[in-house]
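Support reply, case 0932

Customer input (verbatim):
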Amino acid sequence: MFEKIANYLAEQLDIAAEDITADTTFESLGVDSLDTVEMVMDLEDELGIELELEDKISTVGELVAFVESKL
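Our regenerated output:
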């Protein structure tokens, strides 16, 4: 799942996927809360699941753990 999300972010932000780690913050990538919501919606479509964000997610690793908990 990490690789899928890192590749998605790399494509959306035009950066190298190798530069993204679990500890990478969305803030450091220039991703704001609206971008995060759009990303979650894209992941929902791609994975065929519903992801309801209850808490603020600030790192890539937190997003990966959240998505994996819903699978």
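We compared this against your earlier run and they match. Two observations from our side: Residues 13 and 30 are 9 Å apart (CA to CA). Helices lie at 2-13, 33-47, 60-70. Please reopen the case if you see a mismatch on your end.
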